[in-house]
Amino acid sequence: MTLNKDDGQVDMDVTELPQLIAEFQSWLQEAEVAEPNDATAMSLATVDAEGHPSVRMVLLKQVDEQGFVFYTNTESQKGVELLHTLKAALCFHWKSLRRVVRIRGDVEIVSDEEADEYFNSRPRDSRIGAWASQQSRPMDGRFTLEAAVAKYAAKYAVGSIPRPPYWTGVRIKPTQIEFWRDKPFRLHERRQYSKTENGWQKAVLFP
Fold first, then answer.
1. How far is CA 3 from the centre of its chain?
2. What is the distance between the alpha carbons of residues 84 and 146, in angstroms, rounded to a whole number?
3. How far is CA 45 from CA 89, 90, 107, 130, 157, in A?
4. Domain spans of the chain?
5. Fold type of domain 2-117+167-204
6. Could you tell me the sign of the dihedral formed by the alpha carbons of 148, 150, 151, 156, in that order?
7. How far apart are CA 47 and CA 134, in angstroms?
8. What 3-state class would DSSP assign to 181?
9. pLDDT band at residue 131, thresholds of 50, 70 and 90?
10. What is the pLDDT of residues 16-66, one digit of tens each?
11. What are the residue ranges of helices labelled H in 93-171?
12. What angle separates helix 142-155 from helix 124-132, to the nearest 10 degrees?
């Protein structure tokens, strides 16, 4: 363990996933204070069957030693691509802190119990929206969406709203994590950790 003289933070030669997740959670907590909006926002990169990449923003809903979880419609473009390749990449950019975390990993669908618990915690209108929106598919106009919202709002006017079968959580199980920090003259700090058979191997990268 060594002390980073630039900012007084402790820099550990991390070789185990729990320590990496703890460091990420520490950075996230700082971002939740410093960032004006959506510190949990992350870019999600996928590829289609022909190898064409796509990237979009999603919100992190849970992180632990099992991985990074967000929720989506599995019939959407990202859902189809995630289930086809079972691979994805994430990127957090906290501009106020001048920090980035990049993650690559394998895709796993969360359990029905986890998905139900989170779905039921969402605002009622968001649950209606999950039924009404045919995510990523063309629609005739805004009225089509509004009509669908009205339809499901009437259908589930009272009582609980079940989770749509196509709506669930996706867990990215990391195989590589990189911590990036801004440094003067663009000589940035990059620490990359890759999963191996013997644990997590650290590499310090040129900026």
1. 30
2. 31
3. 5, 6, 12, 22, 37
4. 2-117+167-204
5. Pnp Oxidase; Chain A (2.30.110)
6. positive
7. 20
8. strand
9. very high
10. 999 999 999 999 999 999 999 999 999 999 999 999 999 999 999 999 999
11. 112-121, 124-132, 142-155
12. 120
